Amino acid sequence: MLCTFASVKKELKINMPTTLEENLATLEIAQTLGLLEEEFEQIKKILDRTPNFTEISIFSVMWSEHCCYKNSIKWLKTLPREGEKMLVGAGEENAGLVDVGEGRACCFKIESHNHPSAIEPYQGAATGVGGINRDIFTMGARPIAQLNSLRFGDITRERTKWHIKGVVKGIGDYGNAFGIPVVGGEVFFDKCYNTNPLVNAMSVGMMEAGDIISAIAEGPGNLVYIVGSSTGKDGIHGATFASGDITEESASDLPSVQVGDPFQEKLLMEATQELLGISGLVGMQDMGAAGITCSTLEMSDKGECGMKIYLDKVPTRQTDMKPYEILLSESQERMLVVVERGSEEEIIAVFEKWDLNCVEIGEVTDTKRVEYYMNGELVADVPAWDLVLGGGAPVYDREQKEPAYVAEASNFSIDSVTEPADLKAVADFMLQHQNIASKRWVIEQYDSMVGTANMGTNAESDAAVVNLKDSDTALLLSTDCNSRYVKADPRVGGMIAVTEGARNVTCSGGKPLAITNCLNFGNPYNPEVYWQFVGAVTGMGEACRKFDTPVTGGNVSFYNQTSIGGTEEAVHPTPVIGMLGLLESKSDRLLLEFNDIGDKIYLLGPSKNDISSSEYLYSYHGVENSPVPYFDLDEDYNTQQTLAKLNQNKLIQSAHDVADGGLYITLLESCFANEVGFEISTDATIRKDAFLFGESQGRIVVSVKAENESKFIESLGETDTPFALLGSVTKRDIKIDDVNFGTIIDLKNKYNTALGNLLA
Amino acid sequence: MKFGVVIFPGSNCDEDMIYTLASTMGQEVVRLWHKENDLQGCDCIVLPGGFSYGDYLRSGAIARFSPIMTEVIEHANEGGYVFGVCNGFQVLCESGLLPGALLHNNNQQFICKNIYLRSATSKTLLTATIDPLDVLKIPIAHGEGRYYADQATLDKIQERDQVLFRYCDESGEINREANPNGSLENIAGICNEKRNVFGMMPHPERASDSALGNLDGKKLFESLLELQTA
To answer: A474-480 and B146-148: which strand pairing?
Structure first.
């Protein structure tokens, strides 16, 4: 079981060491802090002595999954991480950096804050937003857009309502005050997330290509400053907390949750922007997981140097903080800055202007060790390289085992499900299902428009479209993952998450450039979970290679599962893909809305007699275990290329990809903006429910002006892309095979209000 | 017209306002830092949206004590133009330049969406060229935007034609359903008695760029400039 530091102290009756020789750690202490026996032995070898309590604390957080990715890095390294547009490699800096032309670079990353949000939704989500934005602006970029990907439990449970209300308010209150718009994201409900919701936040920033601030310490004698908020006892051992299962006792870990202050964050961002022109700035890093410990060690290692840090100089909120508390605090809105000796005045002046703490706490050395002092005594002395990811931190491969449900699912046949007689009732059910209905109850609590660059406010595309002012280009952004597909087949599900992101970009008129990912899984020591993890990473890698979208970085969150009464239940494997694309010319932009009555509606991509893993099968029929939907990577890629070509030749009016809820929902969504209807015929060779609600992959609905129809068909004839005429855009009624499914106004109202009603 | 945009440390719509005034409207704009004491000869001072000093106490409650606000209050008292949007409107009410207050939205949530409004008077610079029947689509983004004043103040405001804008529905109907936050009398913006200080919750600067597909907000800036140059 996981313990907080307070409880460790109490149970083991530890007196805090004030010198290196005092209160040496024991195996028992190491294990209580989450370290393995072999790791404890390795630590003793590294130090050539037994660590004291402060040092073992340092190792326990730095070698936690959260900081060093020890159970995942082996597989993450198989992902494609090179590309001509990549300006820094994955893992080299706090976030990825991609060339978007005209001398500009886009810096973006997604990160999880699942465990804190599970027990304190409001602060957990708020500080998740703070942390990811800090990663972006610490590199010198100015955040211009945020997205988030949220997973909650069964919507009828009170705890789920508490989770979603807290998380949404937390994201809103922090992001709205900080002043960066939320331009996109996802919200999904499934009972597998009952105890353990997933809160993944993505931030996207822009900078001049040469302006990057590196997270490096260099030049012995240079000065080390801590800037921003004072250090308090909040969040101590947050990294270890995030590296253990959520249990029934997790509420006692409340002190592991940090508290956010968006106003401080805003000041830090503005000050950082002003540092860009100052030559005496050597490097800077955000203090996230493991606070001062992680930032001092990682910056030292990157510059192959060391540091002396005087912990008593750190501004603290409480007067009696112990060395380990100062070292491990995850108080928010703090950064470590390395400054050339002699340039400090200029840098201090910037922080003074913004009324921020800026306190010298140490200096750079050439020892490759970080030595921490308290009131003149050396309290910890550790080598930088051995502690960090990419250095001497442990790397493990874990046992894998295919779960039994996979074989069971392969026995599923559509013939075992009777087609409902009243498909209109199914359509109404689907439209108002929490996973399908409009997320406006959530979205309207976020400031989506600050920055006056969100081009989706008055006209929607599949991806979020963020205007780059004074340029003809715009960023295209999307977060995607259908975790039921990933559960059904991790490799194919991982591929689908990538190609859906790419499809959203293509359907908006642009080109996919690169991805960031947030890999949310259960306990890696569970072989079935590890099998899911390896499969998903493998599939993502294959799809990223196909689409030439390298992985710029991201985050792994294991232990998303609940131990109740001795059994472990993992969440669905949820590898969320944050896709970055570029709209090279605003005139290329595609909207998802149907425009004019009489326009023809076509489907690109194959129609299949397939309802596997669809929301329809899962929620309407209650069949929870079925295979992944039809998917063909090459075919999906080719269909997207075809769409891009049709758009270049100006042959289509709109494009919208077929996703959750199937073709019916896709068509309706295209009708809402202009309140038009449609009239279509189904395909006699395919079951009607599969045609309307199946989720077979790689399909796009387009609308075509009657006068362009022959050219459109001719152009498609030059490709291998399957296509079919569905029908046409009409005035206001929804008609399928001459059956009236309702008027658009009525259906739109149901779609818009369903989620709010369910949460009321 | 020379504009000065006040920048409090927690302002976050300052650059949007500057972009609109300078790039879209082609006006001279200077940035006025909250610690300064000089309005640099500006004709119109703009208080942008945001969270001035974090606003943990009450929106705009601390901003009124900043050095720049002393100057802004003097400028207003001498008849100079002052325009507050969203948090700027809250600061103007807190500092007494405009009557009334802005309370938490009646649903207790932050709301960001397009809403509709209509001008309620033509007798101010900000609304002079706007047809009162014209329905403007302009977004709101606030947690504390419910306009409130005691009955006597409210009566006075209405008698003296100080209401600038009222929330309405898409067809122009001013009714309860169209009121996004519970503001008294659907009030979205007001001016002072001398008609030189304007405050509104909706963000016209967010509806002034053709790239965003909505230019209804630009009409306010056009009105502000047209009469001045006439």
So the answer is: unpaired
